[in-house]
Design brief:
34% of the residues lie in helices and 25% in strands. It has 222 residues and is of the alpha+beta class. The chain folds into two domains: 2-101, no CATH class; 111-219, no CATH class. A hairpin with an 8-residue loop joins β10 and β11 (189-195).
């Protein structure tokens, strides 16, 4: 599919998180960098809700990614942690999408499922399999363990279902995990919800990888 002027490959994103990146990563990353460089960095900063600081060599975008302070060099548009460690390739690509596609639209504060996002219905079953279903496999009826794991992953509680937490992934992207505790008749279930405007900031493919990353963060705390 096409998002703006950038062609999105579906297959590398719409499956569980993997350490490998598509062979077309370098080409795709450079396409996105070209789009960002055509914009005023101050405009990009406003659209992404990041801070831009100019200097003699260009500038830097400062923002938070999964509660970690990140520096985005401009015009190189490579991303590293505050300590200077370069982010992994798939994280670089996700951030490039965010900086290239964010269009300044306001968040709706309406939570919707992956299936309800533009282009999400076709892949919703697969996404549920490696996101919400994976959470249930890990925690089952142990609601206390789910809550603790979410808190350890910097989740903030929401007053929904039997337990729910929201995670701030990027300044304009938050993701909610909503858990319903099962009983003798119905199994436990978990849904991952996004702001209805999320695809104004990243493509549906990136929403899938964000969900997978959060599942990994939560389950590794179990």
């Amino acid at each position: 599919m096409l998002v703006g002027r950038v062609k999105i490959l579906q297959s590398p994103w719409l499956k569980p998180l993997e350490p490998q990146i598509s062979p077309g990563y370098a080409r795709r990353a450079e396409e996105l960098r070209c789009i960002i460089r055509e914009l005023m960095p101050e405009v990009v900063a406003i659209r992404t809700c990041s801070e831009y600081r100019s200097d003699v060599s260009g500038g830097k975008f400062l923002f938070s990614f999964f509660s970690q302070e990140i520096i985005g060099e401009f015009p190189a548009l490579t991303f590293k942690s505050k300590s200077g460690n370069q982010l992994a390739d798939f994280q670089q690509l996700l951030l490039l999408y965010y900086f290239a596609l964010s269009d300044g639209v306001a968040l709706t504060n309406k939570l919707v499922s992956f299936a309800d996002l533009p282009g999400g219905r076709l892949y919703a079953q697969a996404f549920q399999g490696y996101s919400g279903d994976e959470i249930v496999k890990t925690f089952g009826i142990n609601l206390g363990a789910f809550k603790k794991a979410c808190e350890d992953a910097n989740g903030q509680p929401l007053l929904l279902a039997d337990a729910a937490f929201v995670f701030q992934v990027l300044p304009m992207i938050s993701v909610a995990f909503v858990y319903w505790l099962g009983d003798d008749d119905f199994p436990s279930s978990c849904k991952i919800l996004f702001d209805a405007a999320v695809t104004h900031f990243v493509p549906i493919d990136a929403c899938a990888i964000i969900g997978s990353m959060l599942v990994h963060k939560i389950t590794q705390n179990s």
